[in-house]
Amino acid sequence: MAASLLRLHFHDCFVNVCMPLHCCDGSVLLDGGEKNALPNLNSARGFEVIDSIKSNLEKACPGVVSCTDVLTLAAREAVYLTGGPYWSLAFGRRDGLTTSETAANEQLPGPFEPLENITQKFAAKGLDTKDVVVLSGGHTLGFAQCGVFAGSGRPDPSLDASFLQTLQSTCPNRNESNSNLAPLDASSSKFDNVYYKLLVNSSGLLRSDQALMSDNVTGSMVVGYSKFPFLFYKDFGASMVKMAGIGVITGSNGEVRKNCRVVN
């Protein structure tokens, strides 16, 4: 579940459901709303893991630890337990009271979007170009459905020919193959820098990932991380700390949910 938990945290922190800025607020965990958005529907997973952790916490110390903090910490542990870096986190986030399908559809970066659009969406959350390259490295874990990267039926012309042939066997251009899974990198259950090595070799699974090589600035970062895994680990931890601090709710605002799926 490592990739799923990391993705849930990312999708939570990238969606601002009200003003002022409320992003990392556990809104993705609420039933309805963001769960029904296209980037999450039939693909977001790990909710039952968060439910289990929260249930045990409520027995030990009721009303203390928010669902948002649970998800933030679970994402960190998921990365660490699959061989990735460990980073320090501050706690005390509160849970939001609303969730929005529309906001998720509009604000989450998509796999077919050009790099310029994705960079703008990151910038709207206070994240820079380096964060785009670093956090995209989270795709070292997990799988993607064929419909996410082959749905148009038109292959990415920048892909390596042999890699493209492998993808076409996994994802024939038929509706029934849209839910087939392909690994995001060659070691999809281990957190490492293979993702960047694949991009250098024109073998990125998602069009939005391979697009990082189309720009001189992001491309040079990709090459650097492909050569120096510990630099990637250090920078990934720093970017995750930045992301986990986007629009957090503290003090007496929001609440500490008893059940992560519904407001109190």
Uncertain runs are: none
Strand content: under 5%
Query: Structural class given helices, strands, pairing?
Result: mainly alpha
User: How many β-strand runs?
Assistant: 2
- Major sheet characteristics: 2 strands, antiparallel
Average pLDDT for all residues: 89
**Number of helices, where a helix is a run of at least 4 consecutive DSSP H or I residues:** 12
> Order of helices and strands, N to C?
HHHHHHEHHEHHHH
Query: What characteristic shape results from the CA principal axes?
Result: globular
- For the terminal residues, how far apart are their CA atoms? 27 Å
Read across the widest sheet, the strand sequence of neighbours is 1-2
The value of Rg in angstroms is: 18 Å
GO molecular function: heme binding; lactoperoxidase activity; metal ion binding
Binding site for heme b: 139
Pfam family, one: peroxidase
Organism: Linum tenue
Can you put this structure into words, describing what you see?
Ca(2+) 1 binds at residues 12, 15, 25, 27, 34. The chain has 264 residues and is an all-alpha fold. It is 45% helix and 2% strand. It is built from twelve helices and two strands; from the N terminus they run ααααααβααβαααα. The protein has helices spanning 2-13, 47-60, 67-81, 101-107, 115-123, 129-136, 146-149, 161-170, 194-200, 207-210, 216-227, 229-244; strands at residues 143-145, 181-183. Strands 1-2 form a two-stranded antiparallel sheet. The longest helix has 16 residues, at 229-244. The two termini are 27 Å apart. The relative contact order is 0.20.
